[in-house]
Amino acid sequence: MSGPGVRTVAVVGGGPAGAFCALELARLLPDVTVDLYDREDRGPGAGIVLADEVARQVRAVHPEALRLPESAYATWDETITSIDGERIPSGAFGMSGISRHVFHEHVRTLAARRPNVRLIRRTVTATPEPADLVVLADGAGSVLRQQRAEQFGTSVTAGATRYLWLSTPTVLEPCFLIKEFGPGPLVVHAYPHAAGESTFIVEADPGTLTALGLLDRPAAEAERELATIFRAELGGAPLTARTAGWQAFRTVVNRRWSAGRTVLAGDAAHTVHFSTGSGTALAIDDALCLARSVAAHDDPLDAVAEYDSVRRPIAERMQAEAAESTAWFEQFCRGERLHGHQTVFALRSRRAANTFSRLRERDPEFVARTVARLAGHPTDAEPVDVPLTVGRVRLGHRLVALERRDGRCVLRGADGTQAVGLVVDRTPDGLLPGIDFLAVRARPEGGRVTRSAPAARIRSQSGLPIALLVDEELPRDEANTLIAAARTDLVALP
Known about the structure:
Blueprint: E1 8-12, H1 16-28, E2 33-38, E3 47-51, H2 52-61, E4 73-83, E5 86-99, H3 100-113, E6 117-121, E7 133-136, H4 143-147, H5 149-152, E8 154-158, E9 162-168, E10 175-180, E11 185-194, E12 197-204, H6 206-211, H7 219-229, H8 231-234, E13 240-241, E14 250-254, E15 258-259, E16 262-264, H9 279-296, H10 300-333, H11 341-348, H12 356-362, H13 364-375, E17 388-390, E18 393-395, E19 399-400, E20 403-405, E21 408-412, E22 418-424, E23 437-441, H14 448-462, E24 466-469, H15 476-484, E25 490-492
Parallel strand pairs: 1-2, 1-7, 2-6, 4-10, 7-16, 19-25, 22-23, 23-24, 24-25
Antiparallel strand pairs: 3-5, 4-5, 8-14, 9-12, 9-13, 10-11, 11-12, 15-16, 17-18, 20-21, 21-22
Helix pairs in contact: 1-3, 1-9, 9-10, 10-14, 12-13
Keywords: Monooxygenase, NAD, Oxidoreductase
GO molecular function, one term: monooxygenase activity
Organism: Paractinoplanes lichenicola
């Protein structure tokens, strides 16, 4: 139990980070007074996502936290991607959509029932005093963090796409809906989160929204227009916006998570793009870790230091992964060509852990269909062993050696034929007589999406086969992943 250093804790924000922090502090430190501040004007919200693994971890400590009415959540193990007129199923591996409003209110109520927790319903505009420790868990737009932005080293970066978070009073299957228009696609992230309601997030490039007349429309008009565009998918149900117009996703990073006895948790400390479905899980884990660190140390500064050392590396890894997911959607929303199963494979493999071999193990039917589309027929071959013709060269595999000189490269076939390639860093203008393929250097840093971004963009725009030039030999599994995801056609051995 914590020593005399902590007798009072002020927690600002009643979302998952704040409520779970109060709940865990109350469980571990019954002699400590916890003031949980939550604003009075919380809207109805839409849905949140939790993986089954996270739910199991929460139940192990606070089994009552997820005892929700059946009408407040939905579960699934498969996601449908609707693309280019085709419905493509793939595994989701145990997910739940939960009513944000019901979940938040439930956990806040549980915390408030603890005898040493006081729930204070008001908007906080200044750091609560006196308190031995102040936890800022008041979200990405934390006013109190902004007041001390220099101390926390806060930076906020806006993404390139725009999104509108909506809900609809109907039960949708978990899905990605990709609807192509001339300027670019509208991408929908949708999932059920209650017995009669679903989350419906529309994401697109600003240029696409402008061309469709959606970007600057009042929310009510945008709701009606989007409901019309997606009438078939919604079954005629209406849409209600849960954000104030189209927004850029803002990635919040703080170089320091504490300033004296004030500490950040959840979205106030870090944000991850909604496409990862990890924001709520990160917030809960922050809260539990912080409370346990406080309980383990007499000095709150020591507790905060331990919390930072444990949670910051995890958050940084998750933000790096989220940056890759963000980049994939930004690239796709700029109008990359649709490739059916390969696009869905790219969507799935934007996360580093989802390599070809892992997806084949977990979702063999989907991966088999993807490789069959690549090959043009069912096959047991891996992507690197799917034959490809480049110019006059018939290749039996896609890991190749190139002869490079003067900005060009030559690919030689076993029968003496050859194909000529051009080394480029952008899509060439006009026709390229005598050029059979393009060679594009991989970026030296970043994850899978970032490293292969130039190759994927040029492949989409040029229509020519692409050879990815790498400085170090890629593991076969990574080469398989890039080819199956239509990021490249060939991988050139260094």
